């Protein structure tokens, strides 16, 4: 016999985003919309750093770094470990880091 007709995508399988998911996605893109946060996350993509190291490497004020890290920590995009009195920050979401790195690659190839 003949070939079966291709099935069209079943529109009834479309699932609207729930409010919590939509909020988290919007907050994540908000986090990635600020150049300083992008710079911090990009730095943390390689290895963990203390607040002082981040401030020094990115030529930022320590207070600026602390403020941005607090924002990123609240979204669970970074985490920290304590060693004595020093906090060492690292990224905490591989999915978001992949999106960030892919977007950086995209921007560099234009």
UniProtKB/TrEMBL annotation:
<keyword id="KW-0805">Transcription regulation</keyword>
<dbReference type="InterPro" id="IPR036390">
    <property type="entry name" value="WH_DNA-bd_sf"/>
</dbReference>
<dbReference type="InterPro" id="IPR001845">
    <property type="entry name" value="HTH_ArsR_DNA-bd_dom"/>
</dbReference>
<dbReference type="GO" id="GO:0003677">
    <property type="term" value="F:DNA binding"/>
</dbReference>
<feature type="domain" description="HTH arsR-type">
    <location>
        <begin position="17"/>
        <end position="110"/>
    </location>
</feature>
<protein>
    <submittedName>
        <fullName>DNA-binding transcriptional ArsR family regulator</fullName>
    </submittedName>
</protein>
<keyword id="KW-0238">DNA-binding</keyword>
<dbReference type="InterPro" id="IPR036388">
    <property type="entry name" value="WH-like_DNA-bd_sf"/>
</dbReference>
<keyword id="KW-0804">Transcription</keyword>
<dbReference type="InterPro" id="IPR011991">
    <property type="entry name" value="ArsR-like_HTH"/>
</dbReference>
<dbReference type="InterPro" id="IPR051011">
    <property type="entry name" value="Metal_resp_trans_reg"/>
</dbReference>
<dbReference type="Pfam" id="PF01022">
    <property type="entry name" value="HTH_5"/>
</dbReference>
């Amino acid at each position: 016999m003949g070939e079966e007709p291709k099935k069209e995508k079943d529109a009834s399988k479309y699932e609207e985003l729930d409010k919590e998911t939509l909020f988290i996605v919007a907050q994540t893109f908000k986090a990635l919309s600020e150049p300083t946060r992008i710079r911090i996350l990009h730095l943390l993509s390689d290895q963990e750093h203390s607040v002082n190291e981040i401030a020094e490497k990115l030529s930022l004020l320590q207070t600026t770094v602390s403020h941005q890290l607090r924002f990123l920590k609240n979204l669970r995009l970074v985490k920290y470990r304590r060693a004595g009195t020093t906090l060492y920050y690292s990224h905490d979401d591989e999915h978001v880091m992949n999106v960030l790195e892919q977007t950086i690659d995209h921007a560099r190839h234009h």
